[in-house]
Amino acid sequence: MIRAGIVGGTGYTGAELLRLLMAHPEVEVVAVTSRQEAGRPVSELHPGLRGYLELEYREPADAGLEQCDVVFFATPHAAAMHAVPALLDARVRVVDLSADFRLRDAELWARWYGEAHACPELLEEAVYGLPELNREALHDAQLVACPGCYPTAIVLGFLPLVEAGLVDPATLVADAVTGVSGAGRKASVAMLHGEVSESFRAYGVAGHRHLPEISAVLQGVSAAEVGLVFVPHLVPMNRGIHATLHARLDGSLDLADLQAAFERRYQGEPCVDVMPPGSLPETRSVRGSNMCRVAVHQPPGQPQQVVVLSVIDNLVKGASGQAVQNMNLMFGLDETLGLVSPGMLP
Amino acid sequence: MIRAGIVGGTGYTGAELLRLLMAHPEVEVVAVTSRQEAGRPVSELHPGLRGYLELEYREPADAGLEQCDVVFFATPHAAAMHAVPALLDARVRVVDLSADFRLRDAELWARWYGEAHACPELLEEAVYGLPELNREALHDAQLVACPGCYPTAIVLGFLPLVEAGLVDPATLVADAVTGVSGAGRKASVAMLHGEVSESFRAYGVAGHRHLPEISAVLQGVSAAEVGLVFVPHLVPMNRGIHATLHARLDGSLDLADLQAAFERRYQGEPCVDVMPPGSLPETRSVRGSNMCRVAVHQPPGQPQQVVVLSVIDNLVKGASGQAVQNMNLMFGLDETLGLVSPGMLP
Amino acid sequence: MIRAGIVGGTGYTGAELLRLLMAHPEVEVVAVTSRQEAGRPVSELHPGLRGYLELEYREPADAGLEQCDVVFFATPHAAAMHAVPALLDARVRVVDLSADFRLRDAELWARWYGEAHACPELLEEAVYGLPELNREALHDAQLVACPGCYPTAIVLGFLPLVEAGLVDPATLVADAVTGVSGAGRKASVAMLHGEVSESFRAYGVAGHRHLPEISAVLQGVSAAEVGLVFVPHLVPMNRGIHATLHARLDGSLDLADLQAAFERRYQGEPCVDVMPPGSLPETRSVRGSNMCRVAVHQPPGQPQQVVVLSVIDNLVKGASGQAVQNMNLMFGLDETLGLVSPGMLP
Amino acid sequence: MIRAGIVGGTGYTGAELLRLLMAHPEVEVVAVTSRQEAGRPVSELHPGLRGYLELEYREPADAGLEQCDVVFFATPHAAAMHAVPALLDARVRVVDLSADFRLRDAELWARWYGEAHACPELLEEAVYGLPELNREALHDAQLVACPGCYPTAIVLGFLPLVEAGLVDPATLVADAVTGVSGAGRKASVAMLHGEVSESFRAYGVAGHRHLPEISAVLQGVSAAEVGLVFVPHLVPMNRGIHATLHARLDGSLDLADLQAAFERRYQGEPCVDVMPPGSLPETRSVRGSNMCRVAVHQPPGQPQQVVVLSVIDNLVKGASGQAVQNMNLMFGLDETLGLVSPGMLP
Q: A181 pLDDT exceeds 90?
């Protein structure tokens, strides 16, 4: 059994990680930390875990994290980077669900996250935990940076086109929506039910932290310069990301060519489902499931344009499920162990 | 492996049964029927099952149901009763999620369901599939009638009080709410999103089919005559039943006595969670989970009254999960095999 | 034109009051206060008011409230009671939407609101602003205490039965639900969209502040002692209260008698709609509208019980609309002036 | 008083038209038709209208429509075109909320709506009822074709850019979402609450009927050829359209230039609100209100691109409110008479 610790077990990604690990046959959760809730049973905060988990929250320093085989960080940004070096020194492997190790460029990180990075020397070592891109490197990774939720959906949607040079990468447009769990579980007026429900709005048009992440990952697989317009939106639902992606085609490709490119690129991938041409993936088809579904379209009357639709559950393939997928790879387990549940309907 | 067939695999209980059985280590789903969708891949109707299930819907007659070890009926009422006798003759065990075998009295059934029962002789043989009440009988059952969703939540809430004679059973009041999946997946104006969301209403006040079922089950465990007012309501959410139960106490009991009665009655029950006194169970704490959570209260200034709150997921403990729990008992498996997932948050 | 001021214009009742007063032909809003937002345009916080209202929020002390004809308090409890005496001295009439003047008994108020009342001498003078009960007294009122949202729905539902002695008032049960706007617009984890949506739960079972208010008002019209069990619940929708009311009938009344009693009691009432027997009022039928709809039922097999269903919009008839109705009466206007919009569908 | 008839008063646009006209001081609704509901009180189907409207539904032929001053068609497409010629002959003015007279090209209409147009000779005479484009022509119009909901939001968002030649009109991308009321009020599985809520999906990517309408209107104001990618999406809320619009700038314009262009174009427009630069309009800010709010942005790092956000209530400015605005213009009334309510929050 893999002994796992979770730093930051009060929020939505922490709760989802606990839910997934409860059903994982090779993992035992031995520590869950929270400064604020230390001493309180985890199942008091998350009554859904009554009968599943007897642990109490502990202060991070008292939780025995250095005795774990793996520690997951389900913390806000700028927390993990202060604790990771000591864990790595103690030979504990780390899966970070936060943003701290997603960018390789410490200056870029500092610009977008508003403070200097605490351990820039680890940015190069951290493996960006998108198995569809970095599977080999994940096997031996000591430190994995799980991608952001938008980046997972958007990168997986653009990847076959940009990698193969099928589109002009300077013309990318990504209009994407997220459910409310993407904003976390902290008290705020803006995320009250009365503010969010029965409404729809964009946010972060002037600059969202996932923009440099997406751009950097796509630039890494592109020969030409990447230019991306990214507009995130908030939709009144709990879970799910849907990305509507646009690009200008580089050459005269038809829908069959594009479909073939997607099928080729994701052949054998256990967590990416290329749907038949013309499909309209719903976010609920992946609710609770570690799957990304993509569908490719050519819009009527605009043969030089391509539209890709991509959906994930932001808490699963966009966070905690992908973290488990990465852990499985790191420990030589079947990549989807514990991640077998289909989407929940309705 | 248990070879399982599902009759009526297009609705919400059928879909949920498929989701649960995909993760069940001892069951192989070998047939899913639908007259309307025969020939269509199941995963085309339920894209969440893409990659999990390769079957197509079949006509019931062509589905090879008589070669199954167990057949689940996830059909509207008045369908199973026409097909069950032949299956029992073929020594196939049957778990019926519909209402056809829930009442023992054929006349009562006919009155509430508007037609004569097709096989009244089986009503006595059918075991009412509430494991907390009938566990022993379920081991050898050939035909199990899974309780309705409201009856599950309401009976489990009243059971410790009525069985032990702690309340006057003539004074029962049950105000309960259901999420929309309780109404099934058929085209209707009344259940459109635009009709249901942002509204709340009672229905069936003049007589709901679960009223005779609840009354009969409670009467079966009560020495005195049961009188029940039952008001169901529709709440704009997908899943969940919440019952607020009232009764007049028979004698001078305090909250500690009542709590003790509940804890005693449900000690060791794997799928009923008696919460600490004063708890306020949320339906989401059981979303996707085969658990019933109950909490007992005494209202301020009214020491002769008791209030019980009871929640289930109507599609799991209220339907498909309870069906699997029953199947596990019938086949001598661990009662909760395949039912281990905690509630999904959010 | 009536010059109106609003103290506390940032929350939901303040916003709804502004919306209603924008369409009122005899009112000019001349001041809106907020300590926190002083100096900021009201329409910046409430963009729906762009083009309707040019005012900025002011500090209460600088807002010129004493020059108003009427001041509305849309504040949390324990604020109005500190400011009202000075306004009354300045001959400004006051409509308080908060709880400060709803109870006549200062000790009871102190017990439920956790502090001593600041001006207990005004409790007797304040008129409880339920026009269906106190219309005459409202004409000359200087200080009106608008009823709570639950009390409005529940009192209007029980009133014809209790006043006329048709039920045993010791047996009242009220299971009621509210939309999220009832909890106000302050930052909290419990009211996040991710916490509220797709779930249903009771709250305040151990004692809700509306319990003594409802009991006192009903006791005021009842010959015998009132005993009430009140269980409030939270439903994932923005607006609306639905109350399901139970009582034991005192004598042998049938549904026609009960219907006649309701129709007689509310004949000519412009803001109470007695629906035909058997009706199932939906909260959305009163969304945005100052109407209370009630329907009376006798549950099947329980002829000694009565069930009343009562719905309002908690922000309109349960708060801001009733405040305007009261103001209309105070200033001798048509009672429904500015309150003519039917419910919004969907 | 203007005597108004409504053909098709059972759906959402019909209900919204009734709600708005109830509050219109110069209109009396004298007839509401429905083949299916003929003989039934309108307020039985729409209980929110109890106390406001005493009419029963009538068969269109018996409703006395030719005695009206104006008849609104709130029907599915391909109904109005069969009835309009006779009404025009009877000198009744017509406001059609359906699609029948939105396109000028009868062949194009036939291609997208699947049948020949019944009165192609009227297509030229019909005035496209977007006041911001055709105000003058509306004064004398006998037949007004109200724009579709998406076209209203998208055309008003692109108009200042395309009219003035500020963008390359061949590069337009419109990702837009609608609430469920856009799909109407007919029984369907796809629009059930259980299918729509907690999910998000695109639809009509292969060709939506609003695409030729938007393209034609924009082409009408553009010197160069218009090319548009239009992807509509369904969002789990009742009302609202949000359009996220992209285009490539033609020249070196900065955000101030773009903002000035919008403010200039919509100066004095009573139903278009150009928000300050950087604003993020929410659909709820226009709920129940006949306003379109637009905000212009330049995305970070992409100075050659412009993003416009545009929101309306699909049932008000996108349908019934715009119909009233058109009627006001046709009858020489103040353009916003009866349309003064601010958006409803929450």
A: yes
D252: pLDDT strictly greater than 90: no
- Do the Cβ atoms of C293 and C286 come closer than 8 Å? yes
Identify all chain C residues contacting D291, using CB atoms and an 8 Å cutoff.
51
Tell me the C-alpha distance between C13 and C3, whole Å: 19
pLDDT per residue as tens digits for the range B125-175:
999 999 999 999 999 999 999 999 999 999 999 999 999 999 999 999 999
CA dihedral D134, D137, D139, D141 (to 10 degrees): -110
- Residue B149 is among the residues annotated as catalytic for this protein: yes
- Give residues 47 to 106 of C whose Cβ lies within 8 Å of D: 47-52
A145 and A214 in contact (C-beta within 8 Å)?
Answer: no
CB of A184 closer than 8 Å to CB of A12: yes
Calculate ∠ Cα B287-B288-B291, nearest 5°: 75
pTM: 0.97
CA distance B122 to chain A (A): 33
B200 vs C173: CB contact, 8 Å cut-off?
no
CA–CA–CA angle A279, A284, A285 (5° rounding): 50
CB contact under 8 A, D341 and C285: no
Whether D317 has its CB under 8 Å from any CB of chain C: the answer is: no
Residue B108 contacts C, CB cutoff 8 Å: no
SS3 B181: helix
Parallel, antiparallel or unpaired: strands D241-249 and B167-178: unpaired
Among A224, A166, A305, A299, which Cα is nearest to D248's? A305
Structure-derived torsion over alpha carbons of residues C230, C235, C239, C244, reported in degrees to the nearest 10: -40
Are B193 and D188 inside 8 Å of each other by CB? Answer: no
* C275/D48 Cβ within 8 A: no
Domains of chain A from N-terminus onward: 2-125 (3.40.50.720), 150-314 (3.30.360.10)
Nearest to D340 by CA among D274, D284, D288, D293: D288
**Of these residues, B68, B119, B146, B149, which one is catalytic?**
B149
pLDDT value at residue D327: 98
- What is the value of ipTM here, to two decimals? 0.97
Range 175-194 of C in CB contact (< 8 A) with A: 180-181, 183, 185-189, 191-194
Check if C280 contacts D (Cβ < 8 Å).
no
Question: Among residues C170, C179, C88, which one has the least CA distance to residue C127?
Answer: C88
For residue D252, give how far its alpha carbon lies from the nearest alpha carbon of chain C (Å).
31
The per-residue pLDDT for range C125-136, each reduced to its tens digit, is 999 999 999 999
